[in-house]
Amino acid sequence: MVARYIEIKNSIKDDILQKRYQVGEKIPSERELALIYGVTRVTLQKSMHLLEQEGFIERIHGKGMFVARVIDDDVYMLNNGAGDSVLGFSREFHHQAKISSQLITHQMLCATPEIAQQLEAQPGQVLHYIRRVRLIDNTPVLIEDSWINAAVIADIPNTVLDGGSLYEYIETYTGKKIKFYNSVIEGDLFTKEMADMLGIAPGVPMLKVSGVTKLEDGTAFNYSLSYNRADKFKIKNNWVGK
Amino acid sequence: MVARYIEIKNSIKDDILQKRYQVGEKIPSERELALIYGVTRVTLQKSMHLLEQEGFIERIHGKGMFVARVIDDDVYMLNNGAGDSVLGFSREFHHQAKISSQLITHQMLCATPEIAQQLEAQPGQVLHYIRRVRLIDNTPVLIEDSWINAAVIADIPNTVLDGGSLYEYIETYTGKKIKFYNSVIEGDLFTKEMADMLGIAPGVPMLKVSGVTKLEDGTAFNYSLSYNRADKFKIKNNWVGK
DNA sequence: TAGTGGTCTAGACCACCTG
DNA sequence: AGGTGGTCTAGACCACTAG
């Protein structure tokens, strides 16, 4: 059951990505598009506001809506607050490159008070602890630690951890969608130990991203901490006022 | 002319910040709040969706709306995609600390092709080039380079660059609000030259943030590049599905 | 079953931009 | 003046959660 305004948003996003509109070009007005898609203006506006937040169009009061120039780049972009790159490394990049994982460890342990608090669970709660090195085209680019509440996801097959999408597995397993991801980005340097795992020199800059993921029913199931090579990743952000 | 849904959003945000609701507590339903504020559900929902994007509440289908735990921290948070910290360093932090600036240079120059493209202007367009070191409680924490289109803002008094808010000045000067800020975050290390300007050791990690700022009529007026001490800043991000 | 958020309609009026 | 996006109303029905 996909909402109509999501379908319309994706349809127009596709038009932009397929270059059916040129960069900077004015697209049809809200009233025209509402007529075309057979919805009211309110519904169409929901689509267009989303498209604006995702950085594909700019809405200018009194003028119209215009296709934004979209930045393409040589490095990998982790989109913030827009798009779906939040929904997992595999899902995001597997179309443009070969994604693989090296499972360092997968064990069950009890939550420390700190992690329990992040997961809104009791200290001592049984968790999966997973450490993976992730590779793009066979080059190691990041280390990711995940703590996953075993009360929410009891079993995690190692086949999922090798190459599959963990988030996709969880959505299938629970029958619920992922709705919240609250994260914090920090800059730091790789320690020798971590640099060795990635096969790079120590003292290389990194982007550290930590955060909690929740399902649509509010269940916090995953706390993760990833250490990303700063020469391989950038984070894009589109802020829109009001 | 402030929209009703913005007023309502701020009113409820204030209730949360003033602890009139406890963390995790359920707040009144949409229908109740719509009645209280004398608006329809559609209007109230706009308020609550904003509040959710800003990370203050979580909306759970079938259950209700709940106050999110808000992360307070010792370091300074640059909020992404939510809140207004995008709208300038001064405006964001002057309530919690003494903000000052050290003006390194302010000169007029002609746009290179690269910067002209960012500003959607012609190469050779006259620009302000401004380099400032910014301080929190007299500690230098970042270096910021700005290129501002002189065709949009002709005069920039040095009093504004010293301690005032540049963005506030621009909104007053042009009579328009800032609507877009598209930025990219990268991790890197401070060079010796930059480290010297901040009085720190070279090789310290930094968060580099670059981006273009536009007014509500779509005018790109500012391209900026800031080099932030990674031990002083974090960047927060709230992603909400759908 | 009752209450919650999620979606959608068919209008209306306002604010901004251009000719 | 005419077209654009921005806001708002007063309903309706659907999907999810709980007791």
Automatic annotation (TrEMBL), chains A, B:
CDD domains: WHTH_GntR
Signal peptide: none
Residue ranges constituting the HTH gntR-type domain according to the UniProt record: 2-70
Keywords from the UniProt entry: DNA-binding, Transcription, Transcription regulation
Pfam families, A to Z: GntR, UTRA
PROSITE patterns named in the record: HTH_GNTR
PANTHER family on file: GNTR-FAMILY TRANSCRIPTIONAL REGULATOR (PTHR44846:SF17), MANNOSYL-D-GLYCERATE TRANSPORT/METABOLISM SYSTEM REPRESSOR MNGR-RELATED (PTHR44846)
Record-given protein name: GntR family transcriptional regulator
Organism: Scandinavium lactucae
